[in-house]
Amino acid sequence: MKEQKRKKAKLFNLKMFPLDIAKILCTPTLLFFRIKKIYTSDTAKKKLRGGMLIAANHTCIMDPLILCACFWYRRIFYLTAEAVMDRKKLRGFLLKKLGCVRINRDICDIESIRSATDVVKNGHVLALFPQGGIKEDNIESIKSGIILLAMQSRVPIVPCYIHNKSGFGDRNCVVIGDPIDIFENGTFPAMKEINNLAQTVMEKMTECKAIYEESKEKRK
Amino acid sequence: MITIEILKELFETIFGQELNLDGISESSDLRKDIGMNSISFLYMAMVMEEKYGIKFNNDDFEKIATVKDVMETVESKVQSR
User: Fold this and answer.
1) Nearest CA in chain A to B50
2) Do the Cβ atoms of A23 and A74 come closer than 8 Å?
């Protein structure tokens, strides 16, 4: 696996027209979401440049929109379950136009992994919910597929924690962690190492959650 | 040519203790006998693609059930490259 320079996405791209229009039309939602961003360090504060993977928890259907509003300066693609995209034809069509990459979770979907890798290699940001669907607030386990994707596309993973507002006075909050570079020494790591890396990503996501809880306590 | 020894060595390198590789033979079932799941299938495919310069598609995985199937699929893909 050779080291390669990370590509930046083109600013103007006709294929991205529906996504860009949707982003412009959805700008007022920034006010609705009133997203509070918390960074775990100064490194995390830097704007995302080039291809990258975002690993976030998924507790609500609004999470993709929150991430989209949080990283408003980037086009964000999402790895979306085939079951979600195929439930309604029109929804599947729109989601595809809005940058969703379908994946069948029940099979070894190498073609989707290849499509997702191409997206990231072309300099875009791909967001994943590695818990594998909408789960409770506790981050207990994540799937190792995200590590394989990062290895294949040779990009870092940005761990995030999303807090959805629960009441009138509450605000949506995204805690953004330091990018994690996946270790690569030119050979194929053992599966155990991949599982350990997945564990590290999960721990970083949990750390982001702890930072949110801490800031919540301070505000009280 | 891909042999059982080559495949076994590759499996030991990438899966190590994670899977049950004792007594692996051509007729071993990848899921039942070795204990592979979709992630390990994916990783195996990625490694094979990089190593042999081939490309798998989703249909290939529907046909692959045993070690022999892996060897035959890789072999046919290498030949038709």
Assistant:
1) A1
2) no
**Residue whose C-alpha is closest to residue A152's, from B39, B10, B75:** B39
| Confidence grade of residue A1 (pLDDT, cut at 50, 70, 90) | very low
Please report, as a single letter, which amino acid is at residue A54: I
Smallest Cβ distance to A191: which of B18, B38, B58? B18
The verdict on a CB contact (< 8 Å) between A191 and B57 is no
Structural domain for A161, as ranges: 45-219
Residue in A110, A188, A195 closest to B58 by CB:
A110
Q: Kindly report the pTM of this predicted structure.
A: 0.87
Residues A62-90 have pLDDT tens digits of 899 889 888 888 889 999 998 888 888 88
Q: Contact B47/A188, CB-based, under 8 Å? A: yes
Q: Which domains does chain B have, with CATH numbers?
A: 4-79 (1.10.1200.10)
Tokens 């964000």, located at residue = A76
Residue in A with minimal Cα distance to B12: A190
Sheet containing strand A157-163, edge to edge, reads A36-39, A173-176, A157-163, A52-56, A125-128, A76-81, A100-103
A123 occurs within a structural domain: yes
Q: Does A17 fall in a domain?
A: no
Which residue among A1, A111, A145 sits closest to B57, beta carbon to beta carbon? A111
Cβ-defined contact of B41 to A108 (cutoff 8 Å): yes
Asked if residue A29 belongs to a domain, the reply is no
Cβ of B20 under 8 Å from any chain A Cβ? no
CB contact under 8 A, B16 and A152: no
Q: Domain total for chain A?
A: 1
Q: What phi-psi label fits residue A186: left (phi over 0), alpha (psi between -120 and 50 degrees) or beta?
A: left
ipTM confidence score: 0.87
Q: Write the CATH number for A191.
A: 3.40.1010.10
